User: Fold this.
Amino acid sequence: MSAAPHDKNMVDAHTGMSTTGHEWDGIRELNTPLPRWWLWMLYATIVWAFGYMIVYPAVPLVASYTTGVFGWSSRGAVTQELAALGEQRAPMVAALSKATLPDIEKNPTLLAFARAQGKAAFGDNCAGCHGAGGGGGKGYPNLVDDEWIWGGTLDDISQTLTYGIRSTDPKARVGNMPAFGADGLLKPTEISLVADYVRSLSSLPLEGKPDLKAGAKVFEENCSACHGAEGKGMQELGAPNLTDQIWLYGSDKATIVEGLHKGRGAVMPHWGDRLDAGTIKALAVYVHTLGGGR
Assistant:
């Protein structure tokens, strides 16, 4: 369909209003004026926009932007609020930094502050791996239960946070599980045997009728030095307890075989050079009070 031109000065007989000169299939477009209230609102917003550009940061420049006559910015406002919060918390932060870990737990006020600050620091730095509630995930330990690879006392947790696990810090805790298969220490049949034996230690169901006696022999010769003769683990070496049903990477045979073949050696960062001493203590207290601290 096309628009047929006509006299724009024509007046519509039904409405008494002039037309725009546009016509489609005999339908003529009325030249209806915008409502007065709408126009005044439009003009007001235009005036407001120019006023905003003068008062607040608004116009981007080549390498900067106009700052506005008020000199206000959202970043500056946040910085001021954080500075004010820091001043408000300064006395408690100082007390937290000076107090020992046992003293913090004995002082209800300091303990409440440490848990609050520790929860915030945990969310910012630890939740990405251990989960928001500390429940962990595959390859990341659960901090809520009472099983600890490197120890669950306040001092143990503080040391782990400060120096990390297998991190670049010279005081980091170390202890890798060898790659028995990749390094040729065990044959595939031996890895399969010891995997079945390890599963039997925590009463997991076994497929077929594996030779557990042969698996126990392989375990004794290759694994007991770290995990103990009964498989209950050694915290000083970071060797997990294999007799419970808590598995860091999974308890199915394929996962255990993979670990025996490739080895295990996950890294936890050292936070001692990233977080101040008070925050480290707050984190240690918070993690310790999640439910599994010793």
